Amino acid sequence: MAIKLALAAFVLVASLGAFIATRPDRFRVERNALVQAPPDVVFALINDLREYDAWTPYQFEVVPGLSKTFEGPATGPGARYTWVGGKAGDGRMTIEESEPGKRVALKLEFFKPFAATNQTFFTLTPEAGGTRVSWSIEGENTLVGKAMSLVANMDTFIGKDFEKGLANLDAAATRRLASTASVGGASTVQ
């Protein structure tokens, strides 16, 4: 009887492992929203990693034990944001490409609690009433990611954060636009 149970358990685990292995090797999550500000205002908030706390859904400033550093140029390619410690783990964001008013591409690396490297893209398209912002992430779907997708896929896991972040970006851009207008000029944003 014990041999039959062991054999059944082995078959079950092997079947589950085989099914997990058939899950997609890559993932992509994308959300978009209309931000009620011109592309240059939105771009300034995305292209400067020091501005992320104004809108990101990942509020690192409230994570106990976390330290963050900024390296490289203040904006654009080579700008780097590194975080270490706390519940957020360790990771780094680096701007790899930057096209003013149109696009920002970042390399997103996680070191702890798990290792992963992903690409993140922000695409800005002018529209009546503001800027359509598309925020996407793509990367390898590791074995752990494939197993997790049985419970909640990456779209479910990350999508709601992106939606919140885009709403926050809209609010931050609207505040930025209002503050530059109240100072007497909304034609340039740094």
Automatic annotation (TrEMBL):
Residues 1-20 form the signal peptide. SUPFAM superfamilies: Bet v1-like (SSF55961). Gene3D superfamilies: 3.30.530.20. Keywords: Signal. The keyword Disulfide bond does not apply. InterPro entries: Polyketide_cyclase/dehydratase, START-like_dom_sf. Pfam families: Polyketide_cyc2. This is Polyketide cyclase.
